[in-house]
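#help-structures
NK: newbie question, is this the right format to request a structure? protein is histidine kinase
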Amino acid sequence: MRLNTISGRFAALTIIFVVMAELLILLPALAGFRLDYLESRLERAQIASLALLATDESLASDLESELLQNAGVFNVVLRRDDVRQLVLSSTIPGPVTATYDLRDEDVPQTVDDALGTLLNRENEVVRVIGSPVNQAGQLIEITMPTAPLRTAMLDYGFRLLLVSAAFSILTGVLLNLAAQRLILVPIRRVIAHMKAYAEAPEDPRHIIRPNARLAELNDAETALEAMQKTVTSSLKQKERMAQLGEAVAKISHDLRNILTTAQIFADRLEESADPKVTRAAPKLLNSITRAVTLCETTLAFGKAEEPAPTLSRFNLAQLVAELVEAETLAADAAGQVEFLSDIPPSLMIRADRDQLYRVLSNLARNARQAIEGTGENGTVEIGAGETDEEWWIRVGDTGPGLPDKAREFLFKPFSGSARKGGTGLGLTIAADLIRGHGGRVDLVRSDEQGSEFMIHLPRAVGEGGEPL
C-alpha cells in the first residue's frame, strides 16, 4: 500500500485521526484512573482501620505496618461523631506537599491534578481526603507517596495507547477495505472504460454504461457517457464529411466538364435571332458560370476551408434582383412565397460577388422552403443598409421559425437543418463565406412569426478577408 494512492492515504489519515481522537481522551482517561486509584487507597485504608476499630486493644507495630503497607499509605485518620482520630500511623518520610479533597474536585481540576502528577518525577507525600464508604464516618484522610501513583498512571497510559494503536490499525484496515469495495473498484472500472474507449473512440461498444451505486460516481459515469457519445457522434460525422468531400470532389470534376460544354453552347445562344433567347442567354450563362465556380471550390469545402474572397465593388440591389428572380422561378407555381427587396438602388458594397450570392441564395432558399413546408402563403424580405463601420444585409421571412435543435446547432453541418431531409450545409457555407470576409452571420430572432438573419460585412478588410 503506497501513500500516493487513494487507499494508502485514506488508511494513513484514518489511523492519524483515530490516534488524535484517542490522545484527546487520554488525559480525561488518566484523570479518571487517578481518581479511581486514590479512592481505592481510601477504601483500603478504611478496611485497614476497621481491623483496629473491631478490637479495643492496640495492634502490634509489625501488624500495623503490614496493614498500612497493604493499603499503600503512611497513616489513616477517621472523623466519626465530630471526633478526628488517628487510627493507623507510621513514619512519614517527608513533608506533605499537597492536599487533594476528592469530595469537591471537578473535572478540570481532576485533569489538572493528573497532569501535574505525570510531570512531577519526585516521590512526594500528599494528603487525600474523602468520604468513607457505607457511611462509616464523616471523612477519611490518608497520606501516601506519589511515586506508585505515577507509575500506575504511566502503565495505564501505555496500555491505553497500545489498545488505541491496535484499534486504529484495525479501523484503518477495515475502512480501507470498504473504500476499495465502494470507491476504488468503481473508479478503476471507469479508468478501464476510458482506456478502452481511447483505443477505439469510434466504436460505440466501448461507451460506458452507468451502473455505480454511489450517487457521485453514477453522476460521473453519466457525464462520461454523454461526453463519449458526443465524441463518437462527432467522429462519425467527420468521417462521413470526409467521405462526402471525397465523393463530391470526384463528382465535381466530371460535372465541371459537362458544365463547360454547356457554357460553350450557351455562348452561341447569344447569336440567336430570337429576342427571347437573346434575353435569356446572359442569365443562363451566369448560372452556368456560377455552377462551374461552385464545382471548382467543392474540394476546398470538403477540406473544411473556403478560398479567400476576391473583393470588388458592385451594386447590391442588382445582385439581389438576380437572386429574387431565380428564387421566384424556383418557387411553386401557386405563388405561395412572395419575395420583397428593400435595398437602396445606389447601395454599393465591397465583397466577393459570387460568394455573397451563394450566401444570400442559401438564406433565401431556406426561408422559401420553410414557408412552403407550412402549406400557407408567406413572404421573404431582403433588406440592406450601411453605417460608417459596416454594411448590413437582413433576410427575414414569415415562416414557422426554427426548432430548438436547429437553433442549438445552427451553423454546424448535418446538425442545424430545420427541414426533414436537409443537411444543414447551407447555413454552414454562409457562415464560413461571411467569416472569410471578416464579418459574421447572426440569427436576430426566430419565433412563430418567422425568422430573421443579419449579415455584417466590415468596410475595412485586408487580404484574405481579415479585418484591418
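mod (FA): yep, format's fine, and the C-alpha cells are attached above. The first helix runs from residue 6 to 53.
NK: thank you!
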